[in-house]
Amino acid sequence: MKNKTTKTAIKKTIKQFIKFGIVGVFNTCNSLIIYYILLFFKLHYLLANIIAYFASTFISYFLNKKWVFNHKKENNRVLQYYIVYITSFFLNNLTLYFLVDILDLSDKIAPLFVLIVTVPYNYLLTKFWVFKEIKINKNDISHTFVICAYKESKHLESCIKSLKNQTLKTNIIMTTSTPNKYIKDLSNKYNIKLHIKKTKSDICDDWNFGYNLATTDLVTIAHQDDVYEKDYAENIVYNYQKYKDAVILYTDYYALKNNVKTKDKNSKIKKIIKLPLKSRFLAKFRLIKVLSLAFGNSINCPSVTYNKKKIGNNVFTSDLKFSLDWDTFLKLARTKGRFVYISKSLISYRIYDGATTMEFIENNKRVTEDTIMFNKIWPKSITKFIMKFYIKAYDTYKEE
């Protein structure tokens, strides 16, 4: 078994190195073309090399991240990547200077020999530092997906499949306050334990019912209409193991309409609002957490995982219906603990005419509840001003 694992690892490394080489050749060709063009225009060879080197680096980051190393972490490794390539840049130029000025090698041939030094340097640091594989402690996996099922949603099975197909297998349970044959059949088909809530259906009570049933540290309330990327649980658990003080962990999202993934306009604004939270250091300060919610709910509710070990039971205590999640996040933002924002789209948030959001927009209840939420953060005069612009986001949702 050990020999088989070793052979698999060797094959993976060889395949990875070949891909890295292909990316390297592609970028080297780009770099050399720029280099020779600049030499043709009588630019000094060192300056030509600097421009060519940095011009070919940008694309290589994304090719290495997505294709070569299949990196699953959030996009927070750019700094490390450029540290590698900046130091490699100095190594590149030092070697080039040595070959041309000391050994008197042609400045047209020397860049080819420089690769013998820089390629291994770049590969090793990129593999083992920048795009280091996620290492999860298998003895510390404590996570549950709670699917809150209602009536006969045609999207429920897609949600279930996305949770069953996670690269990291964790617990899955299903709850409902509207029991029917359709839900029971799906729970049996996918061998998911179904818990029936016998009291009246209410979103706050329903979420607490499912949340309280989970016996793990981490709990994700999975909305039946949405689809989770296969590495959602892996990213959540990995980050939790790094930041045990996390109150919640959450990701970016895609808008899903007619089964097509897109980026809605509002998500771009939300990404800017959440930018300070990309700093794990800043993400533990109350002011930063509250500010991320001060201009609207910047957190996509289905993407959130709650640290039950830290929060305890009955996390949902709001009297609101539509802004229940926003109210909950604001409450948690004012408590001790870190907001771990994973800036990677790991959930597809389904948008369609029958969605609850559309219902609240059309009956104007969303305006009322959003106003209440802004009043919890700002003076009423400022809330009135913000709402003039915030209401326009509703139209964006309708267009999406």
Sequence-ordered SSE layout with sheet pairings:
Blueprint (H helix, E strand, L loop, with lengths): L1 H39 L4 H11 L1 H12 L9 H25 L7 H21 L12 E7 L6 H9 L6 E6 L4 H9 L3 E4 L6 H11 L4 E6 L3 E2 L3 H11 L3 E12 L2 E3 L2 H9 L12 H6 L13 E3 H4 L12 H10 L4 E13 L5 H7 L2 H11 L4 H11 L1 H8 L1
Parallel strand pairs: 1-2, 1-4, 2-3, 6-9
Antiparallel strand pairs: 4-8, 5-9, 6-7, 6-8
Structure write-up:
- This protein folds into 2 domains: 2-130, no CATH class; 152-399, Alpha-Beta Complex (Spore Coat Polysaccharide Biosynthesis Protein SpsA, Chain A).
- Helices cover 54% and strands 14% of the residues.
- Strands 1, 2, 3, 4, 5, 6, 7, 8 and 9 form a 9-stranded mixed beta sheet that branches.
- With 400 residues, the chain is an alpha/beta fold.
- The mean pLDDT is 87.
| Global Rg | 26 Å
Largest sheet: 9 strands, mixed
Q: Strand-and-helix sequence, N→C?
A: HHHHHEHEHEHEEHEEHHEHHEHHHH
CATH architectural arrangement of the largest domain: Alpha-Beta Complex
Termini separation comes to 51 Å
List how many beta strands DSSP finds. Answer: 9
- Superfamily at the CATH H level of the largest domain? Spore Coat Polysaccharide Biosynthesis Protein SpsA, Chain A
List segments where confidence is low: pLDDT < 50 over at least 5 consecutive residues: none
- Kindly estimate the percentage of residues that lie in beta strands according to DSSP: 5-15%
Q: Can you tell me the CATH class of the largest domain?
A: Alpha Beta
Helix content: 40-55%
